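Project standup — Tuesday

K.O.: blocked on the structure for the chain from last sprint. Re-posting the sequence here as requested.
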Amino acid sequence: MTQSVYTQQTASSFNYNTPTTVTEVPFKDEQALAQAELYSHLESQAEAVAPTQDPLTSRDRRIIGEIIEVQPESVRTIWIEGGITVWVQLVGGGRLPFDRNWFTTRVAEVKATLPETPRERNERLSDELEKACTVFGLFDHKFPKN
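H.V.: unblocked you, prediction finished:
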């Protein structure tokens, strides 16, 4: 039976109890340096970008969560790729692909059976009331929504 052991000796300048940064490591790994630089750049860009409004409503998340059998809070976003595949991005980083036609059918089925929350009902009724008042000229301004 043949057995081999590989060991690597650390540089004499390396101290175990001293914090080091990527640039101080004696044996620089170029890929690790490039990755750290990229993360630093992305982090600075993320701080510079203004926060955007979430495109998915709580009802959207409930519908998607019901379809793929996950908690609504775990759904980050969805998108359609190539007009064929619906991708669901989860908060934990996973992605799930679905056929667009199947997903569309399931959304319609779940939407028809999913009850409204009191907040969703209030928002829907407020929108309907605003439209009706506008038609009859009862007010010309919009009320701020919370």
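K.O.: great, moving the ticket to review. The helical segments are 30-48, 58-68, 100-113, 118-135. The longest helix spans residues 30-48.
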